[in-house]
Amino acid sequence: MNAKSKNPPMYPNNATFVSAIALASCLGLGCTGSGVSMRPDGSPGPQKCPDKALEAMRYLQLRPGDSSTAEIDANQSGQSPVSLNDGPVESYLTEDLGPFPPVTRLYGQIWTGGPNVVIRYYEARPPDGETVPICAVARLGRGGLLKKPGSRPGNALLEFSRTGVYIVDEFR
Known about the structure:
172 residues, 11 strands, globular, mainly beta, Lipocalin
């Protein structure tokens, strides 16, 4: 921030901060999809948002409830239905989310065991930046991502390839 500016920059250009966030991610201090307790219906249980992600989101002025849209699976963009498996996912934003522009990659985890598909995002990587820890979830306006009939265990069919993405301060 220069002497004339009263507000922090929308895009962090502080090399020390960005390097620290990247290092925290590499050291596993950000969220990972592992170690999540499971509910009896097969959906993931509550999970705290790591302090490093909360710190990064505060710095970027991302608050719970901030939202955008994303393609759920970068490899199935625009397909209908979209077929999702339990495990890691790479999504991308189709609209801005705070300082993150469209095409920012979101990395997270998919669970298909419950009545709805659950997607939790743990990292964001803008097209020209470092990976930043975040906490966000995928959901539609009426709640969860409802599976289509014909979904098998470990797999879910969704009608649409796009979803809403919401910043959270904890996974519930």
